[in-house]
Amino acid sequence: HILPKHAKLWGDRHTGIGFDQLLIVEAPSNPDVDFRYRIFNSDGSEVEQCGNGARCFARFVLDKRLTAKRQIRVETKSGIIELDVRSDGQIGVNMGAPRLVPADIPFQAPEQALSYQVDVDGTPVELAAVSMGNPHAVLR
Question: Where's the active site on this chain (predicted)?
Answer without folding.
Answer: 50
